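User: structure tokens for this one?
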Amino acid sequence: MTVTLSVEPTASAPALFLRPWQTEDVVALVTAHRDPLLRRWLTTSLVGDAEAHRWIDDQIEGWATGLRLSFAVLECGDKGPGHPVGHIVVKATDPNEAAAAVGYWTSAEVRGRGIASRALEVVSRWALGSQRIMPLARLDLLHAVDNHASCHVAEKCRYVLRSVLPARPPAFPCKGHLHVRMNSDM
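Assistant:
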């Protein structure tokens, strides 16, 4: 199954194209993961092509099982979509509650240009709306308390701060913010 989403351009930002990750994305993925700021916030850091290939295979498997729906985020230029500059994922967490977690990142080259919030908004609407792969009523967004940029993205996309969670080392060494968006918040 191939799902693609698009975000219209604005007066100050180009259109975005979201599609599942592909094996051709290895170079862009490894390049993005070289960024120290990105590595600071991620639980998985990809340092080489072999790791990136395995990660992309996991994303493809996630689509096949319907449990991990991940998108490469590409900026569109005059010649169409470029290389991936970001990532958005919807991961099943509790099928009894029709809930999933969302996560995202943008590469250093485009950070601060509103790509994360624009991509997260379109994926959130899709995940809580029309898609039937993983019927959802709630999306949870968790980030480290001191990741102010992620907090801003969450708030901009109408994810309500629900609670502050304690650290859970080693996977999550810092306290976290749990933001929530319900399908009734559309």
